[in-house]
Amino acid sequence: MFDGLHDIDWASMEHAYGSAEEVPGLLRALRSPDAEERRKALDRFYSAVHHQGSVYPPTAASLPFLFELAVDGATPDRAAVVALMVSIGRESLDRGFEVDGTEIEYYPPMGCGQAVAFLRERADGITELARDADPGVRLAAIPGLGLFLDDADRAAAVLRERLAAERGMAARLRIAAAAATLALRLPVASRQVMDWLTGLAADPDQGPATRLAALVQRARCAPDEIGEDVVPAAVGLLRETARAIPVRRIAPVPESPAVSTDGVAPQIVEAFADLDRHTRVLAPTTALLRTFHEALGARVPERTAVLAEQLSSPDPGSRLDAVRMSGELMRAWRGDHTRLLLLVAGQLTTADAEVAAEAAAVLESCHPIAAPARDALAAHIDAQLVQYGPDVWAAPEAPLRRSHQEAVRALARLGDVRALPCLLTALDSDVDAWRAIQVAGHLPQAADQLVPRLCDHLRRVDLSRQWTEMSACAILSALGALGDAAAVPAVVHTLVAAPGHGQARVTQSALQALRAFGPAAAGALDVIRSLTVASDVHVRRAAVAALWAVGRDRAEMLPLLLGLLDDDFSFGISEAADPLAEMGPSASVALPRLRDHLADDYTWIRVHCAAALWGIGGEAEAPAVVDALLRAMAENPQTANHVVACLDRMGPLAAPALPLLREQLALPRRGGRFQSIGNDEELQRVGRALIARLDPPQEPTDHETLRAGRPV
Q1: What's the rounded Cα separation, in Å, for the pair 94 and 96?
Q2: DSSP string spanning 196-252?
Q3: What's the rounded Cα separation, in Å, for the pair 56 and 14?
């Protein structure tokens, strides 16, 4: 065991966190009789040597020793070692090779080719691991049959053999998945495997889960061949499978070693908790159904039908996984999601607080389209208040607390004032107040009640502690969104104090808030003006933008904006272009520099400067502006919202954009900035309205009307 381990110069190699000299110790620890030592070694291997799936030279160099551990019956936790080994091989195939098998060149170099070559040479050993007496080892090794066996006939025969031998659902699902992987990796095996899967899906002697797996994996092999009968068949098999799976309560999250969160922003703590929640898979069919949704792709109605069945499962874990998948569908794909939103909202009434909490969280993340769920959210909140009292926001039971808070946040993001009493409770009690602050800006109609409380929280932020930056910025953002000038003194106080504590981001956020107040913040002009010469470029550009929004003094602003146009910092150039556009023809001195920036390599600079050219020069600049905007959107679809907004202002002169606009709106995936729901919905709304203006539907002629059988 471990022959040659110390012949390798591990110290000369690096993993995600530096020198790989620790790798021999990790490998030896995987054979330790101490379970905790093995757990720590495995965790460290995944976090450093196989970080987020990466395959470094020391990762590949570890494989011979991992293989020795895997095939030695005396190794404890062999299944975990096999799973690690297979994961390294899978990621090596995914990351390290083009479709035609040509290895990609990485810098710094990776070990993908070495890892794949080693595992392919050990095809016999992987086959034996898939036949091992330990069911956990077999389960971990089965995917390797599809990944690393290059003899297609042999691999297919072994998979058929294993399906006949395995009785457990998990193993049978993995066998079907491995078969599809084999078909996709080796085209010579494709037809043989697909025919086998087709037969399994139709075989009444197979259990419903096996038939469902075969149906889904057949669809994965050839998504273009998915017929109209596939989804109804899958829904029927899913229903049968759900009846065959025992209903279990959702197990509590395993306790992890206590870690101090002192000095860590609560938003960061929650982000890691949320990541942990989303890495949990609660139902045995979840991975299979994710595969099915990937194969269905843009078929939103069909995917909604599958999710409707998933959401009707008697098993709460299956429903929770389905709620998450519903959110993923709505966030990534365009379409009418009303039915799915109502189905997710229906999960608010479940007795399982974790499912309800996830449903509310999904509705919050989808709030730009979640209006159909408004009343369901309000009813859920009211029911909780009646049952648990006004302090349910701070309920000691974590699932209940999260369920209530997520529902309140979702309702607030919809601009519904029915969320206000709970937000005020949070702000007054200071229990998880940060979660209320994040959504308070969506209720401007309640600014008179929210602003005093937010200002009080802002005054209590200790800017001498760096971790409070996120809290201060969130409060300032909420105050800016509410737009109530009563907040100006508190914002100015923060703006004055932040630079002394090195809080550049807080300074920027305060300037952005004052910018939102506009002329109502005129009392802050001197402070803003002093920051236009700040050493921090981000602060400087934020101050210039705020000075224009608050002061509106063209004579003062023009030299500052022209200076930013000459800045080497791209964001400064973009920040200068927008106020220049608002100045209109009086900023004509900037036209030559703006025209020069249309040739910039950075698409965002071209977009902002093109919009400024239109705002200043008007019709004379239209051809160059349209050309620059269309090239930018074609190169970088993230610019689409800005591009379409400018085209909308140009009216008929934007006619050359019609083909690209139609092309963008015909895409099934969400587009716009960050591909977020809100930006995409705005892109669709403005884009459709612009198309209708540029190319209105033609009224039928008298002849066409008569042919249609309608009176003239």
Answers
A1: 6
A2: HHHHHHH-TTS-HHHHHHHHHHHHHH-GGG--TTHHHHHHHHHHHHHHHSPP-PPPP
A3: 7
Other Cβ atoms closer than 10 A to 484: 19
Consecutive H or E run containing 33: none
- Please name the amino acid found at residue 378: A
Is 467 in contact with 504 (CB distance < 8 Å)? no
> Beta strand 14-15 with 18-19: parallel, antiparallel or unpaired?
antiparallel
In DSSP terms, 484 is beta-bridged to none
**Dihedral angle sign, alpha carbons of residues 378, 379, 384, 390:** positive
Burial group, residue 195, by CB count within 10 angstroms (0-12, 13-18, 19+):
exposed
Q: Which of 42, 51, 40 is nearest to 18 (CA)?
A: 51
Angle at alpha carbon of residue 337, lines to 332 and 341, rounded to 5°: 105
Burial class, 431, CB count within 10 angstroms (exposed 0-12 / middle 13-18 / buried 19+)? middle
Burial of 619: CB neighbours in 10 Å, binned 0-12, 13-18, 19+: exposed
| Exposure class string for 71-110: b at 16+ Cβ within 10 A, else e | beeebebbbbbbbbbbbbbbbbbeebeeeeeeeeeeeeeb
Separation between Cα atoms, residue 313 and residue 36, nearest integer Å: 37
Helix 169-185 and helix 135-148, axial crossing angle in degrees, nearest 10: 10
Q: Give the integer Cα–Cα distance in Å for 532 and 692.
A: 43
- CB-neighbour burial class of residue 709 (10 A; exposed 0-12, middle 13-18, buried 19+): exposed
Q: Which two tokens stand for residue 149?
A: 């066996």
Given the structure tokens 């390797």, which residue do they identify?
Answer: 144
Region for 65 from its dihedrals, namely left if φ exceeds 0, alpha if ψ lies in -120 to 50, beta otherwise: alpha
């999904």: which residue's tokens? 362
Cβ–Cβ under 8 Å, residues 140 and 88: no
Distance, CA of 115 to CA of 96 (rounded, Å): 10
- 3-class secondary-structure state, position 312: coil
pLDDT along the chain (712 residues), means of 10: 89 94 96 96 96 93 96 95 97 67 49 91 96 97 97 96 96 98 95 96 96 98 96 97 88 60 80 80 93 97 98 96 98 97 97 95 98 98 96 94 97 98 96 97 98 98 92 97 97 97 96 97 96 93 95 95 84 89 95 95 95 97 97 96 97 96 96 96 97 82 53 44
CA distance 539 to 19: 38
Tokens read off for 54: 């990466």
